[in-house]
Amino acid sequence: MNLVKRCVYGISILSLVSMNVQCKGEKKEEAAGTAQEAKATDSVSIVKTVYGETEKGEQIDRYTLKNQKGMEVNIITYGGIITSLKVPNKAGKSEEVVIGFNSLEQYQKANPYFGALIGRFGNRIAKGKFTLDGKQYSLAINNEPNALHGGPEGFHRVVWTAEEAKGGDTASLKLKYVAKDMEEGYPGNLTVFVTYTLNKDNALDVLYEATTDKKTVVNLTQHSYFNLSSDFSKPILDHEITIDADKLVPVDATLIPTGKLTDVTNTPFDFRKPKAVGKEINAADDQLKKGLGYDHCWVLNNQGKGDRLVASAYHAGSGRLLEVYTDQPGIQFYSGNFLDGTLPMRNGGTYAHRTGFCLETQHYPDSPNQKDFPTTVLSPGENYKTKTTFKFSVK
Ligand code: GLA
């Protein structure tokens, strides 16, 4: 493994073998031997490589999950970040469809949660304050004047431990993190497991599980930015989005829910039939103005009925279709409005305005302060368990 550590951070052993690049004259056979861990006969393989070292000197590993239908997902133990996700287009060509960086160093710098796991509480909590059993808790204000995505040192910036598992037609990576009592201001030692599972049919499951030793609030999600065209220099405005929701969670000027739920009918927020992101994104609409585009939580239909198809994104040029299944009550559709051309793309250039979108399955923002929203409280003895699936195909 020294080989990997010395010279190929950011390049997987598999690509080393197939691309025959880097580390000229070094022990290529060693790399080839390791790659054989992924048996050719397995329908889904999982391979571990060393990805890098954090500023604090912790080793970060990367796991490559790959099936035989051209889907490959790379996940690192820093932030549980999906650094790369490749799926075929309609011509069968497998290409990158998520925004990412090419170094750990870049992921450790300030960035808008590219590919990361979000917790302990996804999205905003008004003024960073909430009350549980009469006790008020104060969180860091990292998105003036509110708390966002679990805090400045939330789950997106911690190191997770990892365990691999192989099923018949699946490969899984089970990540674990124990958030301490009062870490980032939240009560309770929270033990969290997030399991990514790739199957042979181009679906990636994300299973979230958590338990606590004190009453707390939990809202976990995944923050990948998709661009199904694979051309990250182009905005995602031509993607057709579908969201199975009759209602929206409208927000105030600081993106905190007003507490009401509004009907999407005859608004730019009606995605019950497929609609291009760009079709109405610039309409004169008060909610769009507040979000600077789409940056809202939709109230998903069929709540309480378990896993169901809740949203999709289709890119006609490539033919790629992404379908999102979840048991969650809400989905935050964010059209990348804050991407501003300052962060580097993998191979030169920068990520410009709206070149990626997120579909973050979750409970509604600010739930701890909204008595009419489904609860996000987790008590000792209870199991937080929720699953989201990102399924890819072409049409
Ligand atoms: C979420 C929020 C957005 C923004 C992004 C990250 O989607 O709702 O307002 O903070 O994360 O930039």
Automatic annotation (TrEMBL):
Active-site residues per Swiss-Prot or TrEMBL entry: H223, E360
Gene3D superfamilies, sorted: 2.70.98.10
Pathway(s) it belongs to: Carbohydrate metabolism; hexose metabolism
Gene Ontology cellular component annotations, sorted alphabetically: cytoplasm
EC identifiers of the protein: 5.1.3.3
GO molecular function: aldose 1-epimerase activity; carbohydrate binding
Protein's GO biological process: galactose catabolic process via UDP-galactose, Leloir pathway; glucose metabolic process
Taxonomic superkingdom: Bacteria
Residues given in the record as beta-D-galactose binding sites: N123, R124, H223, S224, Y225, D295
Pfam families assigned to the protein according to its UniProt record, in alphabetical order: Aldose_epim
Keyword field: Calcium, Carbohydrate metabolism, Cytoplasm, Isomerase, Phosphoprotein
Catalytic activity: alpha-D-glucose = beta-D-glucose
Cofactor: Ca(2+)
Subunit and partners: Monomer.
Family: Belongs to the aldose epimerase family.
NCBIfam families named in the record: PRK11055.1 (NF008277)
Protein name: Aldose 1-epimerase
Species name: Flavobacterium aquicola
